[in-house]
Amino acid sequence: MSFPLAHWFAERHGLTTRGGQAKHPALVLTTCILASSLSFIDGSVLNVALPAIGQSFEAQTAEVQWVMNAFTLPLSALLLLGGAAGDLYGRRRVMLLGIFLFLVASLFCAVAPSLPVFLAARALQGVGAAMLLPNSLATLSASFSGEKRGRAVGTWAAAGAIAGAVAPLIGGWLVDGLGWRFIFLLNLPFAVAAIALGWLYVPESQNEQRPAPDWLGATLATLGLGALTFGLTAWSSTDQVGTGAGATMAAGALILVLFFWAEARRGTRAMVPMHLFGSKQFVGLTVFTFALYGALSGLMLLLPYTLIEALDYPATMAGLAVLPFPIIVALGSPLMGRLAARIGPRWPLTVGPIIVAGGYALGIRIEAGGDYLTTVLPSILAVSLGMAIAVAPLTTAVLSAVDEHHVGTASGINSAVSRAGGLIVTALLGAAISQQGLGLVAALHEAALIGAGLALLSALIAFATLGSMRVRPSP
């Protein structure tokens, strides 16, 4: 779960409807938690199911990477568009449509007879998640006001953290027992319950003054990220830059240049307003997020994969192995959020990634036959501690790096960037995933050192760009 998302709409103005009070507040909160949990669970549970899915479809390395990226690509490219569409056409309406798409896609994932059908269904899940995630939180913000809004958003975030903690463990248990397809069937009752509650008890809200959704920007972002990811995946899985991979990467880069050009021309009506990047602090935080969350996504994918494929862990034990991460981050983030409000975000965002880098470096001690408590756990604990120090201060820093009229857009961009970082890093992991046995362990060591480098880069960026930045008090 990306914590900046939890403030996307909670800190915006002019969102309240019905006086900011819902007639059935508990049911509205339940609906929003159920909706967002679909995406949070699915985004993490497949890390432990990836080997089983690859074996089931006899997938090649590049195809295994697309099991994750087929979902992440539309989510990262369309996240901002989903929020804008909800503002214009009705947040409840767009959220329910997103849940329905996610439900249908989950059913197709569960019964997919072939890998192409499965990947298409994963992409549809990503589209649904891009619609339901921002609008579940926007609906929550529109249905509460004052301190009740803060408590509701806090409950929503805590529920997401709990879902992220138990998802890999449940996913591993299903993989070892009933089979990986039941992971997707698990989504169905939650989605049906969210649709029923949303239809009956959630009030509609919108912001008619918001500009029309930036369809051109969304299209260019999706095509550019898709082509770049496809090229990087082809390159990493073969360890060669062929004509096709090189041309696709070049096309993706060119389309992304066109995306930024189009966004600049659209001005304040753009999906990504370019004037925000006039702030050195916002630019620094954007690069910081891309590097730190990209490295984290790589670890959360490659570590369980290695534990299962090279170290013979059952999927359930691989899910249990990463359980300390969401628990420590969830417990430590509130404390660090309060500390950042007092001392500013510069030092937490410098120290936290340094500890994360140390955790990645400890990953080189993971060996075949090694004991979990002395090899795997120290790395997980250090990464968890460092991220617990950094996550909440990153949220507050993003909200303080722009003027108060753009905090929603800025935190939405930051959430999309964190997912885009994971998308690119996953595309680059082909050479590692294609290894077996001791070769896979060696690839994990190399990836851990690269992750340590990215974390140190994040620390340097925070130290150099945040200066004496202070946190803006919440309204």
Report what the structure shows.
The chain has helices at 25-56, 61-89, 91-111, 115-143, 146-176, 181-185, 187-201, 215-238, 243-266, 280-309, 315-321, 324-343, 346-362, 372-400, 407-427, 430-433, 438-466. Helices cover 77% and strands 0% of the residues. The protein is built from 17 helices and no strands. It is an all-alpha fold. The two termini are 24 Å apart. Residues 1-19 have low confidence and may be disordered. It has three domains: 1-212, Growth Hormone, Chain: A (Up-down Bundle), CATH 1.20.1250; 214-270; 276-475, Growth Hormone, Chain: A (Up-down Bundle), CATH 1.20.1250.
What would the keywords be for this entry?
475 residues, Growth Hormone, Chain: A, mainly alpha, 3 domains, single chain, globular
Condensed summary:
With 475 residues, this protein is mainly alpha-helical. The chain has 17 helices and no strands. It starts with 24 loop residues before the first helix and ends in a 9-residue tail after the last helix.
The CATH superfamily label of the largest domain reads MFS general substrate transporter like domains
- Spell out the helices and strands N to C: HHHHHHHHHHHHHHHHH
**pLDDT < 50 runs, ≥5 residues:** 1-19
Total beta strands:
0
List the helices and strands and how they pair.
Elements: H1 25-56, H2 61-89, H3 91-111, H4 115-143, H5 146-176, H6 181-185, H7 187-201, H8 215-238, H9 243-266, H10 280-309, H11 315-321, H12 324-343, H13 346-362, H14 372-400, H15 407-427, H16 430-433, H17 438-466
Helix pairs in contact: 1-2, 1-4, 1-5, 1-7, 1-10, 1-11, 2-3, 2-4, 2-8, 2-15, 3-4, 3-7, 4-5, 5-11, 5-12, 8-9, 8-15, 10-11, 10-15, 10-17, 12-14, 13-14, 13-17, 14-15
